[in-house]
Structures are given as C-alpha cells and as structure tokens.
Design a protein that fits this description.
Layout lengths: L3 H10 L10 E4 L19 E8 L2 E8 L2 E8 L5 E5 L8 E6 L4 E5 L6 E4 L4 H4 L13 H8 L6 H5 L10 H11 L12 H20 L40 E5 L2 E5 L7
Antiparallel strand pairs: 1-6, 2-3, 3-4, 4-8, 5-7, 6-7, 9-10
Helix pairs in contact: 1-6, 3-6, 5-6
Length: about 270
C-alpha cells in the first residue's frame, strides 16, 4: 500500500503539470472505494495551479475562470498516478486527465482508491492526526497519547487519528532503530525512549521520501518508476534473517493483523 513517502513522491512528480490545462477526461465507468464523480468534466479547460498532500491524500487545485476546483485523490492499496504521452486507456486506468501534452493516468488494479471532490471528502480529512514531519509531532505530543493507553506502541503510532502516514514498513523500521519491541504497551515506555522513537520516525520517513518511496510491488510513480528505499530496510520482510546489529535471527509476530518483524535481543519485550 502506498504510504506517506510514496504519496509525497507522487506529489513531487506532478510538478511538471503545474500551469497546464486539461483538455479532456476519460472515465472507465468502474466504481472505486467511493464513486467517481460524474461531473469531472467541469475540469475541462481548468488549469492545475497547485498540489498539496494531507496524510496519504493528494489535493489538486484547479482554476477555471473565477472558479477554484479541489480534487482529492487517494491511491488506496494499489493506485498510482502515471504520466504518459499519447497512451490510450489500459486495463485498470480509471481516470485519465488529458493535459496539453501529457496524459495523467489514475491506475488502480484493486480499485480501493478514491478520486472525488475535496468538499465531499471532509469526513476523511477531518479525522486525521498531525503530520509526522511537522514540529508539532514531538515527544510531548506522542507521550500525551501513550500515557493513556496499554495498546501496543506499534498500534498507537499507526493510528491515523494520532499521527498520519506511519505505515507498517515505517513503524517496524522505526521501532527497530529505537530498540522498542512492537508489542510494548505504550504507557510503559519511558520519555527518553519515546523521544528516540519520534526522531527515528522523522528520520526514516524523510529518508524514504528522499529515495523515492519504497519499491513495493504495486507502487510506481511518474512514468512507472519504482522507489528505492526498500533496498535499505533493516527488518521489514527479513524474518528469519540475521539482525544487522547482533546477528540473532529476526522474528515475526502479528499485531493488529499486520506482520511485525523484530529482533528479540535488540528489542526485548
């Protein structure tokens, strides 16, 4: 699933389209997680002025005369935004925005993403927590939630109402770097350990963005290139292999239904 770094990478890939005008729109007719609006033709003649990201949502701002139109896109489990020249619709292309010289394809085999007007998506946006790379996400902020719950720390840092965009890969890696077992009750973790965790979350997300996101099977960006961060993962997907710190075999457990690889020596419970 594309997470915050992959969505940020996608956002950056759209910068060549800023200032370009939509000439036509193609719709596949299939439903995504939410129905695709049947009035997207309002965007024909509109110019893309800006693209922002909130959590794993992209918001595209268009200007059409005196009107400002805001379109929200979520990549779901397998979605991507790919830029092509002269390519006709393929299987799983559900929306194609025809700009001046580039066609932007929303491609989603599993159809769990969303393309909808931002005003209709407020019920999703209003529930979101803070951005992990913002200053407000600090040790005091995380501690204010941790001290109130016995939930596993991994569950807490993956709750989108607390902090957005810390997906499974980034949670597992950050906890390993912090020496914290993923099943540790949040309320039992010291202030110093939480401070280390916050720093590592920020570091690992920033590094992933810099390297273009994780090269997950379904994630592509731009013209279909994958990210490179997965080449540097220390524990995710490496159960049974040697720990890079102590050489003990890494183990795997499930927390909240998600695989959680850890080192029992470096991350004691």
């Amino acid at each position: 699933m594309p997470e915050l770094p992959e969505v940020q990478t996608t956002k950056l890939s759209l910068s060549p389209l800023l200032g370009k005008t939509i000439n036509d729109i193609y719709l596949s007719g299939y439903r995504l997680r939410e129905p695709i609006p049947n009035d997207l033709d309002q965007l024909v003649g509109a110019t893309l002025n800006d693209v922002t990201r909130r959590a794993k949502y992209l918001i595209l701002f268009f200007k059409n005369g005196d009107d400002t139109l805001e379109l929200l896109i979520h990549l779901g489990m397998s979605g991507s935004l790919q830029q092509h020249i002269g390519m006709t619709p393929r299987k799983h292309d559900h929306v194609i925005f025809g700009f001046d010289d580039i066609r932007l394809h929303y491609h989603d085999p599993r159809r769990f993403g969303m393309v909808m007007w931002a005003d209709d998506a407020r019920r999703y946006l209003d529930k979101l927590g803070v951005e992990p790379l913002d200053e407000v996400f600090d040790v005091d902020y995380l501690a204010s939630f941790a001290k109130k719950t016995h939930k596993p720390i991994k569950t807490l840092i993956m709750e989108q109402s607390v902090v957005v965009g810390v997906g499974n890969i980034y949670a597992v890696e950050s906890l390993f770097m912090s020496g914290i077992h993923p099943a540790t009750p949040a309320c039992t973790i010291s202030h110093d350990k939480l401070a280390k965790l916050v720093l590592n979350i920020k570091t690992i997300l920033a590094r992933s963005i810099e390297q273009g996101g994780s090269s997950l099977k379904d994630f592509t960006v731009g013209a279909g290139k994958t990210g490179y961060f997965q080449q540097t993962l220390l524990v995710y997907g490496r159960a049974g292999e040697s720990c890079t710190k102590c050489t003990h075999p890494l183990e795997n457990t499930k927390i909240g239904g998600r695989a959680s690889v850890y080192c029992p020596i470096c991350q004691p419970l």
